[in-house]
């Protein structure tokens, strides 16, 4: 796959492919956030995307190129819950069966919504079992096609369409962005962003943001090689717990990202509360890390124009309430 | 004042006046909401507006025409909390002092945010005292200018800019709207909407939506004269508890609105949960009534194109959590 890295033209092709099916989310500016950071912050709310996260973009781009003849046994995917919903919704639109391997401790809302899009769910124990092995076994038995969560050129190109829209809207506003901050799990959104921003806004630096104990991108970018997270880490960000950067994604991100930032659970919760109070947006923990990097001062936005992606909003009501009451 | 009713040209002038200060909120479409209602629903999320509600539009339009020489004693207003924030924020931007008369049982978040914009707050007992009397007394003593919450041509014109943007964006999308649903308390947003939609999309019907026990607009529209709500009514919608339609607003709304709908607290709470789960938007009770009218089937959107305004998102975390957990 390394020889087949996607480029900005693939992101543009993905945008044409998903137009009218994916939501073109707006680029928002909040006076309260500008005042708080001392810069101009442009917010890309992928919480408003179909299925509640950017993941629908990549899944839609991948599945729209499949015919049911190519996938007689449907689709198999593994995911903590957002890619699950993206694949399930995109498969339903194509009339394809979807089977998703999800951790048994996935947020209830993500499980319920994935099932709501018509997918079959197979649970696994995140600490004891290997989801890729389970998924590959299921796919082989069914004659199904695997749609990986990030290490796939079509998935990366699809995720990049969010950043393509950021670049288009910023240009329309006459704003030259200094930086773009995006959450990173396996690095698919970061890679797609790096491709789109690199082509359209080459002066803007792209940073990825991770949970403190899952900062494999930050470590890998600093060392130049893919480094795995130590085992036993914990984070409230269920969507960002990939063990290490993807092979394909890191081939793109390594030479292109300006660096990796990391934020604590406390900083993430504060960002979720800020989004509730000042932005009236529901953001899940993993979706709030870029906002957390700004609010915590890990990235200094003073005097700068910065875009951030709020990547998802699929959070259980109970956790959301707990976070609000902890403020 | 009846001889000086605002018109669509005043809404356009207001839009020019508040441009770059108020947020131009997007017009959003949610596949999940379309699927649920059987129509195409266009959502105007004024929860994303500066101060978290549409009220900033009217306040900004009114105050941007005032000089500090005209208001040596600043501004006085009365409000349950959203007009309070709108006036406080607009006054701060103009360097004017603001004093707001608020009910002692106003949501804590609204009180805190109004104070956060630098306003002085005077509390009154909603059941025993008259807020207008208190406000007029304060204004007379201070040499302050009163900015009424709805019965004012500049306020109405300012609120109408939200609907002007709906009409512009719908036209850009090539969509002919069949109906526009807006929340009504005193009727300022409805009146501004009626003016803007009447001029730009004359085929679209404008409906106002109210809490069940505060359906004074529905009653007044049906009878042709302003009717006051019976006393003792209760509603979760703190923002929509005006006793009767405004004199100026009803002079506009009476001949222009297609009718009034009403929704129960339970329907409002269900709409707030839908907005949390499927739209990832934080909507306060009063801001959710138009959505509630659609989801409850009070307005049938099947096969139609309908725009709704989510008018505000200033809800206490404790109430929001309670609503989520009641689902």
CATH level 1 class label of the largest domain in chain A: Alpha Beta
Largest sheet of chain A: 6 strands, mixed
- Average pLDDT, all residues of chain A: 96
Q: What is the domain tally of chain A?
A: 2
Low-pLDDT stretches of chain A = none
Number of helices of chain A: 13
Strand order of the largest sheet of chain A: 1-2-10-7-8-9
Strand content of chain A: 5-15%
For this structure, the CATH topology of the largest domain in chain A is Rossmann fold
CATH hierarchy: architecture of the largest domain in chain A = 3-Layer(aba) Sandwich
Globally, the shape of chain A reads globular
Number of strands of chain A: 10
Multimeric organization? homodimer
By secondary-structure content and strand pairing, the structural class of chain A works out as: alpha/beta
- What percent of residues of chain A adopt helix (DSSP H or I)? 40-55%
Distance between the termini of chain A: 46 Å
Greatest interface: A-B, 30 and 30 residues
Radius of gyration of chain A: 18 Å
What is the H/E order of chain A? HEHEHEHEHEHEHEHEHHEHHEH
Keywords (chains A, B): Lyase, Magnesium, Pyridoxal phosphate
Protein name (chains A, B): Pyridoxal-5'-phosphate-dependent protein beta subunit
Family (chains A, B): Belongs to the serine/threonine dehydratase family.
GO molecular function, one term (chains A, B): serine racemase activity
